[in-house]
């Protein structure tokens, strides 16, 4: 986490500035994983057991591969209580001038706020923010391919 902006409802979440999560947990990390090539995903899985944070955390290779495919197809990730119960997040890729996924931007908060009635708005806001940052890095949205680089 290199920057964070606190919102109205959440001023202090588990992931602090400078902190990190494993690549199978949370919207941002899962976007990074989906943006990597298949060999990287296989190498990540070969490192050992996938740590469980809640009952909703992805902990099997099959489930992680399904999530990678779904994230690649959707162009974003949704974290639904896989890191902290009651919390949700949406994340989208930030691409560099060559179209590589180099970072992510995510929006997180209480599950009803992020994934309830505002779900579409949450996804639209995060996609817009990711596109704007990517353009600033020289990425041409017209040439955007699938999430995997």
What do you see in this structure?
The structure is a single chain. By secondary structure, the protein is of the alpha+beta class. A 3-stranded antiparallel β-sheet has the order 1-2-3. It has helices at residues 27-35, 38-46, 61-74, 111-115, 119-136, and strands at residues 77-80, 87-95, 101-110. The two termini are 22 Å apart. The mean pLDDT is 86. It contains 5 helices and 3 strands.
List keywords for this structure.
149 residues; single chain; alpha+beta; globular; 3 strands; three-stranded antiparallel β-sheet
Distance between the termini: 22 Å
Pattern of helices and strands: HHHEEEHH
Oligomer: single chain
Classification by helices and strands: alpha+beta
Total strands = 3
Which radius of gyration do the C-alpha atoms yield?
Answer: 15 Å
Characterize the biggest β-sheet: 3 strands, antiparallel
Give the percentage of residues in beta strands. 15-25%
Mean pLDDT over the full residue set: 86
| Parts with pLDDT < 50 across at least 5 consecutive residues | none
Number of helices: 5
């Amino acid at each position: 986490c290199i920057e964070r902006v606190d919102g109205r409802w959440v001023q202090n979440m588990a992931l602090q500035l400078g902190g990190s999560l494993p690549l199978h947990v949370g919207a941002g990390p899962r976007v990074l994983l989906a943006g990597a090539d298949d060999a990287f995903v296989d190498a990540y899985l070969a490192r050992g057991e996938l740590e469980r944070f809640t009952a909703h955390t992805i902990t099997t290779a099959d489930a992680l591969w399904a999530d990678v495919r779904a994230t690649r197809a959707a162009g974003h990730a949704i974290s639904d209580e896989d890191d902290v119960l009651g919390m949700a997040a949406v994340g989208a890729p930030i691409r560099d001038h060559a179209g590589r996924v180099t970072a992510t931007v995510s929006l997180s908060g209480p599950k009803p706020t992020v994934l309830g009635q505002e779900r579409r708005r949450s996804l639209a806001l995060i996609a817009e923010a990711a596109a704007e940052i990517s353009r600033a890095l020289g990425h041409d949205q017209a040439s955007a391919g699938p999430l995997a680089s």
